[in-house]
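Hi there,

I know you've been waiting on this one. I reran it after we fixed the sequence typo, so this is the corrected version. Both the input and the resulting structure follow.
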Amino acid sequence: MLAYLFVMLAVAVRFMPHPWTFTPVTGALLFFGAYRPRRELWLPVVLLAVSDLALNKFVYAYPFTVDQLVPFAWYAGVLWLGAKIPSRKIFPVLGAALASSVSFYLVTNFTAWAWLDMYPKTLAGLIMSYVAALPFFRHALEGDLLFTTAMFGIPLALRAIENGLGGGRNHTAAA
C-alpha cells in the first residue's frame, strides 16, 4: 500500500510548486520496485508518463517531441533498479538513489544536447549542456537522497512503533 501512496505523492508533487527537480519521483520508483511484484511495475511508468504529458501540454505549453520518451525509459530503469536492490539496507538503497540521480542527469542532458537546438553539436556543446544543468542536478540529488531515505525508512519506523506498542510481544509467554 505504501508503494502506491508514494507514487501518487510523486505524481501530485510534480503539479505543486517545488524547487526544480526536488521531487520524490526517484524514491517512489525505487521503493515501488523494491516492494511490489514485477507484474505491477508498469503502473508507475504510466502514471508518471501521463503526468509528464499533462505538464508539458497544459502547464509548460511544450509540443510533444520524441525526446520526451527518454524519461519514460528512465522511469522503467529506476523501477528495475529498485527491484534489484540486494537488500533494503541503507547503503544499497542510497547507492541506488545516487545511481538514479546521476543517470537522470547524464541521460536527460545528453538527450537535450543531441535533440534540441540549444547547444552546438560539439564536445564543447555537450559540456555546456551538463554545466548548465548542475544547479538542477544538485536539487535532484538532494531530493532523491532525502525522499529515498524517508520512504525506505517509513516501514522500519512503523515496525518499530508497532513493536514498541506491544505488537512484537510474545502473548503466549504472558499467559
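Quick highlight: The chain is about 75% helix and 0% strand.

Best,
R. S.
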